[in-house]
Amino acid sequence: MEAIASAKYLRGSAQKARLVVDMIRGKDVNKALAILRYSSKRASLLIEKCMRSAIANANEAAEKANVAIDPDDLWVKTAFVDRGPTKNRRRVRPAPQGRAYREQRHFCHVTILLSNDAKPEPDAKGKRAATAAAKPAKLAENKGRKRGGAAAAPRAKRVAPRTEASDRSDAAAKAEGETKAAKRASKKRAKAEE
């Protein structure tokens, strides 16, 4: 059985809330609540509230389905944070030399999905099977990129297919380069003799 809870318009940026959500994803409910309670991040209090709401939703859904559910068997199957609005919430902060810095009040939306299904077994590397299968495709897509996204990605070199004509032109260029080098060497010898 699965239960979902979402908290919308939480104060703070989505980037900072994701740091907290990443700590609890895949953990048991009790362990996740302990992590949230003793975390020093401001977003952890609001995420803990959302987690408790998800637990209550699971109990409610179990009662409606006339099924017994143990809250200790629940684990965080999915947890993610979406960016909320900043529109019409801009503020201005005074800055030196008569300037003004614009401040945006950030909001975020947190969604947590709890499940009491069996967890996927970790493979040899300690990763869960579901995430291990999904990650290599993403890593292959982003391989070679630096921070900064696609703009900072190195450009791939274009290699023309090899043909007989290109082999002949390569041989001609090599021979031409050797003859130029021989001419330069002979000019140097002539200058040295003078």
Question: Would you kindly provide a written description of the structure presented here, covering whatever features stand out?
Answer:
The protein is an alpha+beta fold and 194 residues long. The chain is 44% helix and 20% strand. It contains five helices and five strands; from the N terminus they run βαααββββαα. It has helices at residues 14-24, 29-37, 43-64, 129-142, 164-193, and strands at residues 2-11, 75-83, 90-94, 100-104, 107-115. The chain has a three-stranded antiparallel β-sheet with strand order 1-5-2, with helices on one face. The protein has a two-stranded antiparallel ribbon with strand order 3-4. Helix 2 (29-37) packs antiparallel against helix 3 (43-64). The longest helix is centred in the last third of the chain and has 30 residues, at 164-193. The chain is elongated. The N and C termini lie far apart (95 Å). The mean pLDDT is 82.
